[in-house]
Design a protein that fits this description.
Layout: E1 2-8, E2 13-20, E3 26-35, E4 43-48, E5 54-57, H1 63-75, E6 90-95, E7 106-107, H2 110-118, H3 127-140, E8 146-150, H4 160-163, H5 170-175, H6 184-198, E9 206-212, E10 216-222, E11 225-229, H7 252-260, H8 264-273, H9 276-281, H10 287-295, H11 299-323, E12 328-332, H12 333-338, H13 340-348, H14 359-364, E13 370-371, E14 380-383, H15 388-402
Parallel strand pairs: 1-6, 6-8, 9-12, 12-14
Antiparallel strand pairs: 1-2, 2-3, 3-4, 4-5, 7-8, 9-10, 10-11, 13-14
Helix pairs in contact: 1-3, 10-11, 11-13
The protein binds adenosine-5'-diphosphate.
């Protein structure tokens, strides 16, 4: 079954084309990224598997034109991987926010679309863009089934005491204000892969997954089900991130707004796009640059590095208490996959309970899944590269075949 996985942002369309023969048997045919939609310098980078990537510089005024360009590229004589559009059996979309409407993936229909639209209030940058992507696919591939997979779905198993904020209850009833989490597809994938690699029975396990990238979240998973996660009503809550502040005393919000004369939208922008690594360092939101700056003696960059491990260790420690122990800790996403020092520093905070890192295994773990704990460690520790697209493709295959 050929499945096109789409991750549509407000100005980008990322895609992967997978040939799914089964959950474990699949091949990636091509992947790509169309950037800067509606800007003068839009460009599509397309990589057919086993061949060099190509870049197409072409003006793309909107998502419909963008989707057509992606499809034409996939069937192009020169660098395409399909004979015709008809070869695509289904399309799977990543959706950031499904609130408490969705605890699993769903086939797109009118009701599903209206719920995604309702959730746009909680994810104003993402959900409207996802809807544009679904609409653009309907125009280019009108008879192909489309499936949606939600970043929030995996976290729907949290208990009310974990997802409720201690605000007046009516705001939960009236406006659905509660914790939803994010990155669920990634946490689900790496916990399952990690359990397999560590030889654990997922149905009888306590796992903590640390997805540390530009956006970061940590999740506690008991017996394969999420019991707590660090992101909240929106992805702003939790630990320090590239440009998000993470958890702060909520009274700071009106305080800075009054002092600086900021509107709610300006304050939201400040906390989501101008804070985190960028806010403290004043220079960059990228961990590679933070590491370079710290190595050159930049004190603010050093604070950022320390705060990242401090925040992760606090969350991991809390989740160990919540689950009364832990069997496996998994690190994933751009920062945690590529920075052995971070995995080492977090685990050093857990040495009191017998967590030991195998220094060699940790130093060499980069692209491939690896156990990085020492044989005598009381808790297994793994590095698992995330693969959200594969989960979306699997779910799309399952949902489409079951209908
Ligand atoms: P997103 O949340 O946007 O998916 P990623 O998971 O791609 O983010 O993570 C991006 C972060 O990973 C950046 O801060 C980047 O510096 C870091 N990163 C990516 N590759 C490396 C590397 N080779 N060495 C160190 N850090 C890296």
């Amino acid at each position: 079954m050929i499945i096109l996985v789409i991750n549509c942002g407000s100005s980008s369309i990322k895609y992967q084309l997978l040939d799914m023969k089964g959950d474990e048997e699949y091949s990636l045919l091509a992947k790509g990224n169309l950037e800067k939609i509606a800007l003068p310098d839009s460009k599509l980078t397309h990589k057919p598997s086993g061949r060099d990537s190509i870049v197409i510089n072409q003006s793309v005024p909107d998502h419909n034109v963008g989707m057509k360009l992606v499809m034409e590229t996939l069937v192009s004589k020169e660098y395409g991987v399909l004979k015709s559009f008809d070869d695509i059996d289904a399309v799977g979309h990543r959706i950031v926010q499904g609130a408490d409407f969705f605890s699993g993936s769903a086939l797109v229909d009118k009701d599903v679309l209206s719920k995604i639209e309702y959730c746009s209030d909680f994810a104003p940058l993402h959900n409207p863009a996802h809807l544009l992507g679904i609409k653009a696919v309907s125009e280019v591939l009108p008879s192909v089934p489309q499936c949606v997979t939600f970043d929030t779905a995996f976290h729907q198993t949290m208990e009310p005491y974990a997802y409720m904020y201690a605000l007046p209850y009516k705001y939960y009833e009236q406006y659905r204000v509660r914790r939803y989490g994010a990155h669920g597809t990634s946490h689900q994938y790496v916990s399952q892969r990690g359990a397999k690699l560590a030889g654990l029975d997922l149905a009888d396990s306590r796992i903590i997954t640390c997805h540390i990238g530009n956006g970061s979240s940590v999740t506690a998973i008991r017996n394969g089900k999420c019991v707590d996660t660090s992101m909240g009503f929106t992805p702003l809550e939790g630990m320090i991130m590239g440009t998000r502040c993470g958890i702060i005393d909520a009274n700071i919000v009106p305080y800075i707004m009054k002092k600086e004369g900021l509107s709610p939208d300006e304050m939201t922008d400040l906390m989501n796009k101008k804070s985190g690594f960028l806010g403290i360092s004043g220079k960059t939101s990228d961990m590679r640059d933070i590491c370079d700056l710290a190595a050159a003696g930049d004190e603010k960059a050093e604070i950022v590095k320390k705060k990242v491990t401090f925040d992760i260790a606090k969350l991991v420690g809390g989740y160990i208490a919540e689950m009364n122990g832990v069997d496996l800790i998994v690190f994933t996403a751009g920062i945690a996959e590529n920075n052995p020092w971070l995995r080492n520093d977090v685990c050093a905070q857990l040495s009191y309970m017998g967590v030991r890192i195998d220094q060699e295994a940790n130093a060499s773990a980069r692209r491939d899944e690896a156990i990085i704990s020492a044989p005598d460690s009381t808790v297994k520790v793994a590095m698992i590269p995330t693969n959200e697209e594969l989960v979306i493709a699997r779910d799309t295959m399952r949902v489409v075949l079951s209908k």
